[in-house]
Structures are given as structure tokens and as C-alpha cells.
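Hi R.,

As promised on Friday, here is the backbone we talked about, encoded as C-alpha cells. Could you run it through your design pipeline when you get a chance and send me back a sequence?
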């Protein structure tokens, strides 16, 4: 019998493959040199981020979480266990001002993000540096 964790992992893999298969025939999901594709959250939303981000504390934390959650034997692309809205906010903040936000950990950025969210669905904007 499958555990809940295994069911969630299978669901994520299925969503990722559905997204990849939904491309039009002949359409190639290209990734520019110096960038890496990541699949984020339960919905497997695809992000293409600069490879240099992977050495930043927040990404190191996220990669450690991915290791714990999924292990090293992931099918398909690199999946990140993170809310996609938060991840988008982090990427936007880093693109806007890596010097200010690049040294913050996952927890520090999450606290900052939480302060910008309403009680309902989060519509946070990228913070000013």
C-alpha cells in the first residue's frame, strides 16, 4: 500500500509530465545557457532561473528540502517543495536586488514574504530594497 507521501510524489510527477506533454508538436521547451528549469509546488509550475541563484542561501535551503522530500532519484526535472507564489516572489526579489535579498535564508525571506501577505490569498509585491 502506498503512503500519503508516495501518493503526493506520484501526483507531482504526473502533473509535471502532463505539462511537458501539453506542448504543441514540434514546440521545444528551451532553457537558455546559464539557466536551470525548476518545477515548483504541488502543481509543478515551471520556472527558469539563473544558475547563479542555486548557490544563494534560500536556494541551498530549498534544495535541501527537495532532498529530504524527494530524495536523489526524482523522475523528470528538479522539483522544489515550495509554494509557487512564494517562489515567484523570491525570484522577483532576487532579480530586482540580489545584493539585498541574496544573503537571506529561506526562513528570513518567508518571514518577509508573510509580512506582505493579506489574510487571504497572497498578492505580495516584490519588496523595495
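Update: got your reply. Pasting your designed sequence below so it's all in one thread:
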Amino acid at each position: 500500500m502506498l503512503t500519503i507521501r508516495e501518493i503526493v510524489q506520484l501526483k507531482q510527477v504526473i502533473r509535471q509530465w502532463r505539462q511537458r506533454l501539453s506542448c504543441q508538436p514540434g514546440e521545444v521547451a528551451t532553457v537558455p545557457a546559464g539557466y536551470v528549469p525548476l518545477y515548483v509546488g504541488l502543481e509543478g509550475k515551471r520556472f527558469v532561473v539563473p544558475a547563479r541563484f542555486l548557490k544563494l542561501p534560500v536556494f541551498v535551503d530549498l534544495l535541501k528540502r527537495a532532498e529530504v522530500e524527494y530524495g536523489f532519484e526524482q523522475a523528470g526535472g528538479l522539483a522544489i517543495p515550495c509554494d509557487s507564489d512564494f517562489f515567484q516572489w523570491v525570484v522577483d526579489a532576487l532579480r530586482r536586488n540580489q545584493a539585498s535579498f541574496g544573503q537571506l535564508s529561506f526562513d528570513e525571506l518567508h518571514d518577509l514574504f508573510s509580512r506582505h501577505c493579506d489574510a487571504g490569498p497572497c498578492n505580495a509585491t516584490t519588496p523595495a530594497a
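One thing I noticed while checking it: Residues 4-23+37-115 form one domain.

Thanks again,
M.
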